[in-house]
Amino acid sequence: MLQAMQATAECPKPVPQKAPLLTVDNVTLRYKTSNLLITATEKVSFSVGESDRFVLLGPSGCGKSTLLKAIGGYMTPSSGTIHINGRQVKRPGPDRMMVFQEFDQLMPWKTVLENVMFPLLMARKLPRQQAEALAREYIEKVKLTRAIDNYPHTLSGGMKQRVAIARGMAMQPDVLLMDEPFAALDALTRRQMQDELLQLWEDTKFTVIFVTHSIAEAIKISNRILLLSPHPGRVKAEVVDVDKIRHDAAASAELEQEIHNLLFSNEPGHRE
Ligand SMILES: Nc1ncnc2c1ncn2[C@@H]1O[C@H](COP(=O)(O)OP(=O)(O)OP(=O)(O)O)[C@@H](O)[C@H]1O
């Protein structure tokens, strides 16, 4: 694993194992405020293959959420390009569904079933019966069938996140974009949700880009991890083949320490 890290730290060009589904090429993202130009990420490149569980990991403020927003099509790069399935990302689309950290991402006046059905009806324009069947299937996958007619205010934080995941997955997007979806949960629920996400992945092998600043969470759920430097975010290194060590506690702990050292060391370790 150290080898993988060092090799990629010296040459952080990603090494995807399958043809890339998504490519982020030399992307710089900036925010303009009334008197400031803030560079969130600088010249970031990576690619994501089909069925990857790709984690963007880095300290607070390094631009992880901003990158996810740009992949979602909610923000245009100042320079560089993002392509999905060979098409340049220019706006949001049903091929990229987002799950956020906030529990209030559901519509409070709609039940669990109606929340999950909503984008299927509005964005995919499915007939009602088909939308309902698909919504029920994914609500079942996240183990919420018993709460299918509940309104969001009656659900726990973890249950709300399950609804958001079901809503994203039911759309069967090319890639699911998850922005710290478990960060606001208590530790026990968080671990449970990580396990459930992995189980869902075993069932459907969806592609996911997952943002976190927890090194342990990154190792637990990913097969690949992109490490970003502190603000402005640049690629520091990529960890490949995380799957090989996930079930080895000693190797995971060693990797966790190595990532920690790399993320919090001052040496630049990035390409200009
Ligand atoms: N709407 C905005 N307007 C101006 N600057 C912003 C805006 N959103 C984010 N930024 C700035 O861009 C940089 C990257 O922010 P971003 O939220 O993408 O980081 P992050 O890595 O996701 O952080 P965290 O882990 O704390 O969520 C930060 O300096 C932040 O202050």
Automatic annotation (TrEMBL):
Keyword list, A-Z: ATP-binding, Nucleotide-binding, Transport
Designated name of the protein: ABC transporter
GO-annotated molecular function: ATP binding; ATP hydrolysis activity
Keyword ATP-binding carried by entry: yes
Signal peptide: none
Stated family: Belongs to the ABC transporter superfamily.
Domain of life: Bacteria
Residue stretches making up the ABC transporter domain: 22-255
SUPFAM superfamilies from the UniProt entry: P-loop containing nucleoside triphosphate hydrolases
Upper lineage: Bacteria, Pseudomonadati, Pseudomonadota, Alphaproteobacteria, Hyphomicrobiales
UniProt keyword Cell inner membrane, yes or no: no
